[in-house]
Design goal:
The chain has nine helices and twelve strands. It has 309 residues and is α/β, with parallel strands linked by helices. The structure holds NADPH dihydro-nicotinamide-adenine-dinucleotide phosphate.
Length: 309
């Protein structure tokens, strides 16, 4: 039994060390050293190189290095009947919660305005708004959205979330399905996007939906870049419909040099780093699922290919 993994070179060593520490019996093959393809039962990848998965006759599961699987889906044909497991691990959740809380508080506490004032050497107080008066809305109440919702609500923000199916989470109002999207947006002064990228969520933040937010709403975009119509967002920023944004994901990454977002006074941007899988904690999630498969149980956090996430 072997596990083939393909991650960026820098982090390959960290993965190999974490696997060696927690499962010294597991044979590791690091891409491109596949060896005998018959040995490989598990693959851990962000985006599999074309044609590789179909060459592995004994494959039992594909583990995504990330929480999203859009990169995996985009990489080409996936072998039928092999479970795809998305990454759910405490390090990734903690990193995203930190980022969402940081970004939300920066926007809430006028750090964009103070950055402009600092650049202009201008000293002026802006009246603070109590958290109770800033309604937070989280698009996507899954693993990451729920934890961000929970922590943000501890600051006193009234928090609501939108998902496909209704949730019952203490202290978080649940809106579900397309029919409730407008009502959800119209009560969200600060919107966090933590949706997976699927055909349904592509360009979900567009002219129409951005206009449904309260005037001057704030945006934290950490799902995927293709969920945002960037021209519509720029218009909304320029008109004041959107008061400010923290953007971590973009339609094209790296962000092209000519993108107006780079120098936009109402934007703080980061290079798709809101959260990263932590090999040290993630190997435990992978090994737990390998143990489940060995016992004949279904792995946890499998992707439903029909839903697309
Ligand atoms: P989950 O699968 O746990 O949660 C997804 C949530 O989105 C669920 O609540 C789901 O609803 C909801 N959803 C999906 N499609 C729709 C739809 N059409 N309408 C309404 N709600 C919908 O994912 P995670 O929380 O683990 O991750 C979310 C995303 O975060 C990832 O897919 C990835 O794109 C992004 N991400 C970004 C990172 C970054 O660094 N920027 C790092 C990690 C992740 P329901 O609960 O009803 O199924």
């Amino acid at each position: 039994m072997a596990l083939l993994f393909k991650t960026d070179i820098d982090r390959g060593t960290a993965w190999a060390q974490a696997f060696a520490k927690h499962a010294p019996e597991l044979e590791l093959r690091q891409w491109p050293e596949i060896g005998n393809p018959d040995d490989i039962e598990y693959v851990l990848v962000w985006a599999p190189p074309e044609g590789v998965l179909s060459r592995l006759p004994n494959l039992k599961a594909i583990f995504s290095v990330g929480a999203g699987i859009d990169h995996l889906m985009a990489a080409g044909e996936l072998p039928e009947g092999i479970p795809i497991v998305r990454m759910v691990e405490p390090g990734l959740t903690a990193g995203m919660t930190e980022f969402v809380v940081m970004a939300s508080l920066m926007l809430h506490r006028f750090m964009l305005e103070y950055r402009s004032q600092q650049t202009a050497h201008h000293w002026e107080e802006i009246n603070q708004i109590p958290t109770a008066q800033r309604r937070v809305g989280i698009l996507g109440l899954g693993t990451l959205g729920q934890e961000s919702a929970r922590v943000l609500s501890t600051f006193g923000f009234p928090v609501a979330g939108w998902s496909r199916t209704r949730k019952e989470i203490s202290g978080v109002d649940s809106f579900a399905g397309e029919t409730e999207l407008k009502a959800f947006l119209s009560r969200s002064d600060l919107l966090v996007c933590l949706l997976p990228l699927t055909p349904e969520t592509e360009s979900i933040l567009n002219r129409e939906t951005l206009a449904q937010l309260p005037t001057g709403a704030l945006l934290v975009s950490v799902g995927r870049g293709r969920q945002v119509d960037e021209d519509a967002l720029l218009e909304a920023l320029d008109s004041g419909q959107i008061g400010g944004a923290v953007l971590d994901v973009f339609r094209q990454e790296p962000l092209p040099a000519e993108s107006p977002f780079w120098d936009h006074p109402k934007v703080i941007l980061t290079p798709h780093v809101a959260s990263m899988t932590n090999p040290e904690t993630a190997v435990l999630a992978v090994l737990d699922n390998i143990a489940r498969i060995k016992k004949g149980d279904a792995p946890s956090h499998t992707v439903d290919l029909k839903r697309g996430y």
